[in-house]
Amino acid sequence: MKPVKIALLTGGGDCPGLNAVIRAVVRKGQLSYGDQLVGFTDGWRGALENTHISLDVARCRGILPRGGTMLGSSRTNPARVPGGMERVIANVEKLGIDGIIPIGGDDTLSVAHALAGMGVRVVGVPKTIDNDLRGTEVTFGFHTAVQTATDAIDRLHTTAESHDRVIVCEVMGRHAGWIALYAGIAGGAAEIVIPEEPFDVAAICHRLTERHQKGRYASVVVIAEGAVPKGGTLTTASRELDQFGHVRLGGIGAALAEEIERITGMEARVTTLGHIQRGGTPTAFDRVLATRFGIAAIDAMHRDETDVMVALVAGEIVTVPFEVALSSPKTVDPALLHEVAEMFFS
Ligand code: F6P
Fold it and tell me: What is the CATH number of the domain that holds 214?
């Protein structure tokens, strides 16, 4: 198989396991195919401004357990810059790049899909702690975020018990409540609130009051940042839009804690986990998944695939068209919340 020149980039919010993907692509590309590898820095910004570094096995030593991304990341969207997509293509041609492996979520991969439509060879790798990309059972980073949130909930339980308090724990999850649901179940939450279903503050307060009337009973309420009260709107930390049109979320946990205290008279506190969920070393599961994704992505390049994303389906790594992956966010089926998690709410 003839060696090619491949560019990698990491876009959007970072996530544990990005470096493991980079290492896997570089190692397989260089050692099995004799490929030349470069990394655009800071996501699509690097492709737009032609800032890149060369990558090889030596340069990737020691990065497997490191969180973050050695390439840097940004939410730059070349489609929002006049002539931006054409500039990316011109840079790709100037560098003699045969294909791009972008590692990112729906925003980053939507740019990849558009470039594929313009003739650039692209194989994507799905990344997001939110786990909201369709076409793959799970994205790397999710498992680490859930573990971090679960550890935090365990800690919140002991202090909530000491003071007979309600503690609201706000986790990430813009469109999808996967982190809230999984960490809530794993951490034995008294309530789990997800973006998929508008929540009823009065009903939550009623259940918490009943629960505490049964005796001294600490309650941890897990809420995703994208959750919305019935008849209400998203709570945002800033109304400013990023280049993909998203506002910065944050604050719904504090608002809910305030309401709980006001309505029930119980003491309530809030903890927002924020970027703690995105930082730090990936779990073993995420390192393995990221490694498998990286190897599969470079293999797919050498099979001349394009406009696809590698994915985990029934335990196997396959490729799925971007069109499928980007059709809509993969959200939580509320049945899972009602049938499993709610069993433990009372
Ligand atoms: O990447 C997804 C995500 O983790 C969302 O859950 C969250 O809303 C967002 O990133 C935060 O992004 P930033 O780091 O740009 O504030």
Answer: 3.40.50.460
